[in-house]
């Protein structure tokens, strides 16, 4: 019975990922259309030659890196605070950003930026995209780090402070090293989520802050372009490996 269910689950999993396999295969097709004509790296070379795509990719990388650093620092601090205080209301409110539809969060962030910019006289740009990404990435970091914290013994910090360490030293020398695999895993997850986001980014981005997902969407709307297959295949491979590594780090022993 269990073997049959396992085979059924594996078959369903493989079927759901069949479109990704087809996408990767046609990224090596020499034809512009979904008619196989032979192996070719032409579309990967086209990806490297497109200046608009390069600019969008650089914007995405810059946004993802900066927002990942900020959200990881803030999210780790929040997770540590929740662990110390153990407030169920605050912990439950954390999941609100996860269940809120992206379109709603995007509209709310845009309204907030438009209101606050009346006083600061700023415009939409990379900085607003970074702030938006930090806002929704923090929850992912908190969840991953908090899961690790629940496996730690809080008495270790108390013992360190009894031996003369300050509260900061106890955290830096005792808790943080044990949290490091989860912090790295959370950072990888935040990087993936930030790089991949389209809905929220498209609402808070300025005219000079197009990201790679926005470029892919705009290009796909203009018609078939096999370069999309190539860049999408690269994204799937890179971030797939990143997520697998993140999960391995998250499950590693403290």
Summarize the structure.
79% of the residues lie in helices and 0% in strands.
Task: Describe what this molecule looks like in 3D.
The chain is mainly α and 254 residues long. 79% of the residues lie in helices and 0% in strands. It has 13 helices and no strands. It has helices at residues 2-16, 18-26, 42-49, 51-85, 88-94, 96-99, 102-120, 126-149, 155-162, 167-196, 199-204, 212-221, 226-251. Helix 2 (18-26) packs across helix 13. The longest helix has 35 residues, at 51-85. The chain is globular and about 70 Å long. The relative contact order is 0.15.
Rg for CA atoms: 22 Å
Q: How many strands, what sense, and barrel or not for the largest sheet?
A: none
Helix percentage range: over 70%
Give me the secondary-structure category: mainly alpha
Oligomeric category: single chain
Q: Please give the alpha-carbon distance between the first and last residues.
A: 35 Å
Number of helices: 13
Q: What is the ordering of alpha helices and beta strands?
A: HHHHHHHHHHHHH
Name the poorly predicted regions: none
What is the mean predicted local confidence, pLDDT?
80
What shape does the CA trace take? globular
Beta-strand content bin? under 5%
Number of strands: 0
